[in-house]
Amino acid sequence: MIPEPRRTYLLELLTALGPATDGLVLVGAHALGFMVARPRRTLDFDFVLDVAYLRDCSTSIRSVLAALGYSVVENARNFQFEKRIPNSLEVMRIEFMAPIESVRKDGIRVDVQEGIHGRACLGGSIVLLETDEREVVGSLPDGKPARVRIHVARPHALVLLKLLAMDDCYRNVRGPAHADHDREAAKDHVGDIVSVMGAQADFGEFRNGFVGQFGQDTALKGRTYQIIREYFGDETRPGLILYAESLMANLPSGETVRDLSSELRRALRLVSSLLLEQ
Question: How far is 191 from 88, CA to CA, in rounded Å?
Fold first, then answer.
């Protein structure tokens, strides 16, 4: 579940958005909070936006964000917003993504509403179809109780996005200036992939959902399975190297990895098993 104080301010945002909330799908590390016992800690709330729905929605997301005290993140104009949580050192950061099929000519952004863009997201159109409604319960900043339903990406759709993001980060498609950051992000994505897959009670159902989500998109399916083969085809592949680095970087204080090789073999079995259903 989403920890405090971010849960309070997520509820504040979703309550203020009202009907526009139906056009948002939660992805990223905060979506893991609905799937695994110990999700990775993150500042960001990542949403894939339903562009058609939000263009017809009367609620202005930009106006809501401004009223709640959010400002645009430098160098991420109109698709990342943040604000300092009152009486805290923590920050709320919101990032918007949108299906790449609606991308504008610059190949990077999707125009959603006045003053709101989505970063172009390969696989975003699948995520919009592969969601579950979940409930966030808590209090608003003024102490009033709040209960809001939110769309969350299904585990197999989240793993799809994570595989694509891992590949982009590992290949450092943004260039040398971002190399260190992208390497760290690639490790986070691998750790998230293994966490989500390892938490599935019915792994057969998960695999069926994973292969079924592609529908007629054979190009994306081919690319995704090629990523799985390249990163998790055997124990020498970069996915396992990244996961080993992720394990070592995220150990709780005072703990050690008792059997790193055993955990790496488990991760390899988990992810490479997706190849059986292609």
Answer: 28
Entry pTM: 0.93
Residue-wise DSSP of 1-61: -PPTTHHHHHHHHHHHHGGGGGGEEEEHHHHHTTT-SSPPP-SEEEEEE-HHHHHH-SS-H
Residue bearing tokens 């992810």: 271
* Cα pseudo-dihedral 106, 121, 49, 213, rounded to 10: 140
Domain end: 153, 172, 190, which one? 153
Type of residue found at 37: A
What are the pLDDT digits (tens) for 58-117?
999 999 999 999 999 988 889 999 999 998 888 999 999 999 998 987 778 999 999 999
In 154-230 the beta strands, taken as DSSP E runs, fall at none
Residue 1 in any domain: the answer is: no
Domain match, 77 and 49 both: yes
Residues 6+ apart with CB under 8 A from 42: 28, 29, 30
User: In the chain, how many domains are there?
Assistant: 2
Q: Do both 201 and 248 map to the same domain?
A: yes
